[in-house]
UniProtKB/TrEMBL annotation:
Protein name: Ankyrin repeat domain-containing protein 54
The organism of origin for this protein: Rhizodiscina lignyota
InterPro entries xrefs: Ankyrin_rpt, Ankyrin_rpt-contain_sf
Primary role: Plays an important role in regulating intracellular signaling events associated with erythroid terminal differentiation.
ANK repeats: 42-75
Record's keyword terms, sorted: ANK repeat, Repeat
Region Disordered: start-end pairs: 146-179
Length: 230
């Protein structure tokens, strides 16, 4: 006489196996994959149980290989993140599996608010706080500021507007006198510039310019001396 067929497990049986026999849960799911997303009469699921009992491998298998929603809600509107008891599992849920840290339960509370209010698992509270804004709500801008040390990029330019950056050299403070420059250019443009008379006028013009510079320098030095005396 053949042995009786193995009864099909139900979600309640699998939930009871999670704390001590997670491998048995995976064996059952291999035969009955539809049970991976099943929930009991209170909405409790295998992802909730795997989170609560810190069964990391089972949790990853449920979400990655069986496609269970990491934000599956129970009858109180709570996702698995609400029942997390260790920082390692919290990190896995948020950073690996994409759990929604903003998810609110039926009372309008996020996971951080509830866990912190119950006074349990301070390491979980501290981790969730680092992933959240000051009001307990996850803030991508907060994370962005941490990554950029608070340095904000400039706002985008309006359409059809562009800025070309370059360097501008400032003219020297002691550049040539415009009047002297003009007189030199006028002299150089004359037909007799290369003649003895033109060259003599050029030497005279240069001599006048040198005397003027010397006089200005002497005046500046006297002024400085007077200021020191005063």
């Amino acid at each position: 006489m053949p042995p009786p067929p193995t009864p099909i497990p139900n979600i309640s049986v699998l939930l009871n196996l999670v704390p001590d026999r997670p491998s048995s849960v995976l064996q059952s799911l291999a035969q009955h994959p539809s049970l991976a997303s099943e929930q009991d009469e209170h909405g409790y699921s295998l992802v909730h149980a795997a989170t609560s009992y810190a069964q990391l491998d089972l949790l990853r298998e449920l979400v990655r290989n069986y496609g269970v929603d990491v934000n599956l809600r129970d009858e109180d509107g709570e996702t698995p993140l609400f029942v997390v008891e260790s920082e390692e599992i919290a990190r896995c849920l948020v950073e690996e599996l994409g759990a929604d840290i903003d998810a609110k339960n039926s009372e309008g509370m996020a996971a951080l608010e509830k866990i912190e209010g119950e006074g349990d698992y301070p390491e979980v509270v501290e981790y969730l706080r680092t992933r959240s804004g000051p009001d307990g709500i996850a803030s991508t801008s907060t994370l962005a500021e941490q990554q950029t040390n608070g340095v904000h990029p400039p706002p985008p330019l309006p359409p059809n507007v562009q800025i070309n950056l370059g360097t501008v050299q400032e003219p020297p403070e002691d550049g040539p006198d415009p009047e002297f420059r003009r007189r030199i250019e006028e002299l150089a443009a004359r037909d007799d510039f290369q003649s003895d008379q033109g060259q003599a006028q050029l030497r005279e013009l240069i001599t006048d310019a040198v005397r003027g510079v010397a006089a200005d320098a002497d005046g500046d030095s006297r002024g400085s001396a007077q200021r020191r005396v005063e």
